[in-house]
Amino acid sequence: MKIISTGSAAPELAVTNEMFSRVLDTSDEWIFTRTGIRSRRISTGDTALSMAARAAENAIAAAGIDRAEIGLVVCASVTNEYLTPSLACLLQRDLGLPESILAFDVNAACSGFIYALGIAQQLIPAGKYALLLGSEHLSRVTDYSDRSTCVLFGDGSGAVIAEKSDAPFHFVSGARGDSGVLYIGASPPSPNPFAPPPESSPSKLLHMDGQGVFRFAVEVMVKSVREVASRAGKALGEITHFVCHQANSRIIENAATRLGVPLERFFMNIETRGNTSAASVPIALDELNATGGLRRGDSVILAGFGGGLTYGAIYLEW
Ligand code: ACO
What we know:
By secondary structure, this protein is an alpha/beta fold. The protein is built from ten helices and 14 strands. The strands form four sheets. The protein has a five-stranded mixed sheet with strand order 1-7-6-4-5, with helices on both faces. A five-stranded mixed sheet has the order 8-14-13-11-12, with helices on both faces.
């Protein structure tokens, strides 16, 4: 599989650290030195679907393809307003995509876009294009009374158009089930006359043990990047760009040091975007592409980690 175009979308409102310091006991200095974040986009009306539709339109226009030739839509998200219909199905409707299509969502939290690409490579129909997205409206599940998490997250969407190709493509993934370190609860069950009421339900807002996630993130990023480079038969020194989940600049710096790779080869836009979960890798890829950073033939490793716990990495050639 080969990516032929990228696109992204974000809400207009940029919420700076200084704006947070007016409503919370925090400071630009604390947030920036701990995370690398200065501002993030926050929805004032956008949804995961509205942002996904704009990102998809941008990617379709950049590819210059006929949307009737899209045969697969995979959307990674944990913030759709519905359990069903999926975002991918709603995009089929809103973008006017053909009905003879395979359309579904992937829930792998911040690794979701990596999982979506890995799955799509197996499913993309010959002679058709795949539309692959990560889209998150995290502000709808953020606990704005918890200063240790609310300053981290932003909203946005990223998309790519991919086609079947013999170009090198390698995917590694992992999952380590854990509902304590990072979770977002579902709605409590509706009262059921045949069952006793549930004793408790997990919170519907995002909960995270920051230090637990930090340790997990560095461990699995180093492991999955090494593994995918080895599958591709490449030394890390041969990789042009590393585009990783933008959760915390210190996680990326730590992983780069352990991998022995200069930090300049790790693309970072966390300063202005914050952590957009499944959207962060495709947004970063689009920004790198839009600024002329990607050239045909470049070796690229994408890597993600997040709730589940999940992780994954992809090697591809641009
Ligand atoms: N402003 C000021 N002080 C704060 C803030 C804040 N926004 N948040 C926490 N603090 C305080 C704490 O209350 C604590 O104070 P105390 O010592 O008086 O108790 C102190 O700062 C230190 O808190 P820690 O939680 O130990 O801070 P840490 O250095 O671990 O940084 C952070 C927290 C930034 C969350 C870090 O652990 C981290 O980045 N972890 C990874 C998180 C991550 O990447 N998550 C995303 C991956 S999964 C996904 O994307 C959904």
